[in-house]
Amino acid sequence: MTGGNESCIAGPIPMSYLTCLTYILQEWTGVEHIGDYLSYAFYLVWVLFPLAVVFILPGVIVALFYISILILHIYKRKNELKEAYSHDVWIGAREMLATLWDGHGRIWHGYELHGVKNIPEGPGLVVFYHGATPVDYIYFVARLHVTMKRRCFVVADHFVFRLPGFKILLDVHGVLPGPREACVSTLKEGHLLAIAPGGVREALFSDEMYTILWSDRKGFAQVAIDAKVPIIPMFTQNVRESFRTLGGIKILRSLYERIRLPLVPLYGGFPVKLRTFIGEPIPYEPNMTAEELAAKTKAAVQALIEKHQKIPGNIFRALMERFQTHKKDD
């Protein structure tokens, strides 16, 4: 060390390691008061790091999607010979992905599914409130597959089908863009089908008040009437505390209404408690109109929200609920 650096440990009053480091940097750089700059830098890191985390965590879900896609491509490569002899070569792949996502839901959110007794043995239309992401629906489908070996198709927005690399994932899991005829056909084949009438608009622009944004949509009700199946209402507690959006910014709402693309920033990925509640089925009634059935379904979903969700939603409270016991409804 040079004579200047030796002064860090020499003399009657030895310097601390941090003070010594600051002194050395000042000597090397020639910048006066470098300690003040370092203190400011450390302060920025302390303040901005949590903000960076809440915007980075959603990338974990995106990574899991692409891991799932990679698994499907590997599975397809390994099972090319079976494809010609099997009516559904993807059964094993669905089981693997269901185990993957169910494990993630259990570990990260302590995910619980209540009211499975309300799911009919035959076909049915599951209608649910759409959170900022559909991660709760993914956990629901995974748990349904793991515990009951049931498959549930779902209707998704058209932009989902333009996401790079997602085609194989959407095909394997029965994600449909519509139209109504395809939905009715799926139900008549005996499958479960899920629809979130609020769609992307509800995902982006609802908030911690859990406002249902269905407008006057009733197409889902007409699907249930045409297929003569019950509607099963569903809601996931704390889904808005897991992920949130900046949908309250008016210019972003105007931009979405003009181009219909979900360009609203997303943040969160918090390990809050998630519980999915399945309500009692609304049976098919031949004399009920689509408008009446849509209103009845909306009221059923609203009742689940009022029963199981504390409003306004609170992220800290939702985190603390990970440590609370909950009486099972099943």
TrEMBL record:
Q: Which GO terms describe its cellular component?
A: membrane
Instruction: Print the keywords alphabetically.
Output: Membrane, Transmembrane, Transmembrane helix
InterPro entries (alphabetical) = Plipid/glycerol_acylTrfase
Residue ranges of the Phospholipid/glycerol acyltransferase domain?
Answer: 124-239
Residues spanning the membrane: 43-72
List the GO molecular function terms: acyltransferase activity
Tell me the domain of life: Eukaryota
Q: Which SMART domains match?
A: PlsC
Q: What is this protein called?
A: Transmembrane protein 68-like
